[in-house]
Every structure is written in structure tokens, then in C-alpha cells.
Amino acid sequence: MISRYTLPRMASVWEPRSRYDTWLRIELLACEAWAELGKVPREALTVIRERAGYDIRRIDEIEREVRHDVIAFVSAVAERVGPEARYIHLGLTSYDVVDTALAVQLQQAATILVEDLEALRLVLADLARRHKRTVMIGRTHGVHAEPVTFGLKLALWYTEAGRDLDRLRRAKEAVAYGKLSGAVGTFAHLPPFVEQYVCTRLGLTPAPISSQILSRDRHAELLLTLALIGTSLDKFATEIRHLQRTEVREVEEPFVEGQKGSSAMPHKRNPVACEQVSGLARLLRAYAQASLENVPLWHEHDISHSSVERVVLPDATILLDYLLVRFREVLEGLRVYPDRMRQNLDLTGGVVFSEAVLLALVDKGLSREEAYRLVQRHAMKAWESRAPFKQLLLVDQEIRRHLSPAEVEKCFDLGYHLRHLDDIFARVGL
Asked: What pLDDT score does 3 carry?
């Protein structure tokens, strides 16, 4: 499932070695801070820097005995350092290390997602400009409404992706906080200077206040944002799926050489990539729900959230990374059929211009109710008999009393419907 383009970079953020490297960095920075305060002798700091390291197999071995990952890590490091290891983890609680390291990992993951989303927006912008005047029918309730362009549809997606990008940057900032405030957040066994020192060098902001942990509303905000981005992709993919239906066939996702759509039917070309996007977006929404459940914890901390986060944070970021790249690939290879779009626009015999006729009659002095009655009568007949709507209007004497043939003809001008295209594109920055 995971694309060859996305797995290595995002997955590396969540590998055990990445986590342990960050834990070690935090422990060393804390020692440096203590040395600045005179609590750790400079000679001891030198030894710690030279010898500090770990072996993952040894950490796993110790953890099988002590059943605590941070204790296992600190013990494995201490074995290498020797007597000076008494200064490692000084005044800290486990979550001073875990939560601060998690903030670093989330910054790395969010940076990748920002880049993914920026790349997707570039493709959307290019497609929107290219199809700015590719005319098609707009649909409401799945029923023909009035003319639009495919470029307008894409411009709408472009702006939504822009809002998603803004949300992601804000959520990235919301989790850019660390904490080294001790077992219940009171700094009982270490001064705030240590926290400030470590966070500054990690590119984080010290949390103004914490308990044993950082409050989980921060993480929930990020997961909700990821779910919303996935839901935007679901929305875009669902539209392509509808437009790819055989009866519509205005666009198609890429179908590459050698691809097969069905084990039984050789003719099949299914929107499987878009269906995958829609399906996996549901997982992101489920992860967001789990993150909300992590916010209410007992007193200053319990670990009911921990097991959940070990799944949802790596999975959600890896999954969204995949979905953003996957959907970008769909857009880059999207097949667009302008002729079919025009055929579908003409499918209903011109009834999609009914509002223009309605307003023309109102402009002539008819009440809206009377004008609506006149227009709807012919629109319904055109729907049911497939007779051209314009012709039905031109032979109706009641219509002719108010509108000349030229005025009726003007109501069917596509240019009238699309005359504000340039203004709309300018408003969204395209």
C-alpha cells in the first residue's frame, strides 16, 4: 500500500533509532544545562559526551526485565558511560524525555507533510489554469444545474488545499513544545533553566505549564488537522470517481500500460486509486477520534494515551504522506475529456439556461412567480420529451410577448455564465 516515494523518508522519523537518538540528545542537553549551573562537573560532562551511546538489542534486553522503555534506555546508556552516568536523567521524569522527543518527531513529520501539500497545490494550480475555460456542466444533488468550467472546480480544490496547508502549519506550531518540569510539572528537582536550555537547542518552545506530560489537546489538534486534510482528498477523489462513471466519463484517473481492472472483465478501467484515497481517509478520521479520547487523563498523568499514540501518530503521518503523494500522482496523470463534457452539457436540451430566461422575464416586469411558472412549464416538457428548450420558448406566444427571439437567444450564451472567470481566478491567486 505504501508508495515507494513516501515510505523511507516518513518512516525513518518513527524508526526506533530515530527515537532513541532524540532521547539521547535530550539527555545530553540536560547534562549540559546542569553543567552550566555547576551541578554537573565539566570533567564528567566530557566523559558523558565521549561515551554516551546505546545498543538497541541491549535496550530490548533490559526492557524485557524492567518493563519500562525509558528506564531500559537510560540503563543501557549508563552501562557505556560508567560512574559519571549518575548525572544522566538528573531530576527528570520519563515523559520529560518522551514528550519532548515526540515534539521533535512531530516537527519532522509535519515538515514532510507540508512539503507534500505544497507540491499537491502546485499540480492543482497548473491543472486549474490549463482547464480554466474547459466548459462542463455543474451539478447539484447530482443533477445538471448550470455551466461551469473544470478549471473552476480545480480552483476550488486549490483554495481548500490552501486552507489545509494553513491549518497544518498552525497544528505543527501547536505541537512544537517541549517540557522538562519533573514528575508533576512543578520543577521540584530541576530548575526551569534546564527546560529552557534543552528546548531552545531543539527548536522547541517550553510549555508555559505542564503536568507530568504535555496536554494532549495539542496532539489532538494535529490529528484533527490530518483527518481534515485526508477528508479534503476524499472530497476531491469522490468527485473524480463520479466523473469517471461510464455514463459521465468526463475525466479518468491514470490507467497505465499493463494495468488490469478486473479479473473477469477485460474492459474495466476502475477509479481504484481514488477509491483507495476515499477509503483510507476514513482511517485518518478514526485516528482523530482516538486522539480526542487521549485528552482526558487521570490527574497529573496516566498512560492510557501512550499505547494509542504509538499507533496513531506514526500511522496517521505515514498514511497522509502516502495519500498526498498518491493523489498527486492521480492528478498528474488525469485524463480530461472536454468533448464529452460539452456533450453532457448539451444533454438536457438547454434547460440548464432556465435561470437566465427566468431573470430576463423578471427584468421585463413579470413577477418572479409568474416568470417561474412560464419557464418551468417548458423546462419540464424539455426534460420529458427531449425537445430543445430554446425552441419550446421561441414558439410560445406568451414568452414572445415579453422576449424577442434575440433576447431568448441571448439567454443561452455560455459566455454570459463564465464572464467572471478571470475575476474568480484572480481572487484565489491563480
From this structure: 47
Q: What is the chain's length?
A: 430
The tens digit of pLDDT for each residue in 207-232 reads 999 999 999 999 999 999 999 999 99
- Looking at residue 359, which CATH number applies to its domain? 1.10.40.30
Q: What is the mean pLDDT of residues 250-274?
A: 79
Range of the domain at 86: 1-90
Q: How far from the centroid of its chain's Cα atoms is residue 373's Cα?
A: 46
CA distances from 109 to 6, 25, 97 (A): 12, 18, 18
Chain segment 298-317, per-residue pLDDT in tens:
999 988 898 999 999 999 99
Q: Are residues 290 and 215 in the same domain?
A: yes
Whether 424 is covered by a domain: the verdict is no
Report how far residue 221's alpha carbon sits from residue 13's, in angstroms, rounded to the nearest whole number: 20
Q: Would residue 101 count as lying in a domain?
A: yes
Residue 262 banded pLDDT, cuts 50, 70, 90 = low
Distance between start and end Cα atoms, the chain: 34
Residue tagged 453532457 (cell numbers): 344
> Residue 102 contacts by C-beta under 8 Å, 6 or more apart in sequence?
309, 313
Based on the fold, state whether residues 76 and 134 are members of the same structural domain. no
Strands 205-206 and 177-178: parallel
CA distance 262 to 106: 40
- What total of structural domains would you count in the chain? 3
Query: CA 105, 111, 113 angle in degrees (round to 5)?
Result: 105
When pLDDT is cut at 50, 70 and 90, the band that residue 8 belongs to is confident
Q: Taking a C-beta distance cutoff of 8 angstroms, is the pair 200, 229 a contact?
A: no
Q: Which residues are catalytic?
A: 141, 262
| Confidence tier at 286 by pLDDT (50, 70, 90) | very high
CB atoms within 10 A of CB 193: 14
In a domain, 97, yes or no: yes
Same domain for 115 and 167, yes or no, is yes
Do the strands 143-149 and 177-178 form a parallel or antiparallel pair, or are they unpaired? unpaired
Say if CB 359 and CB 403 are below 8 A apart.
Answer: no
Whose cell is 482511517? That residue is: 283
Q: What is the pTM of this model?
A: 0.93
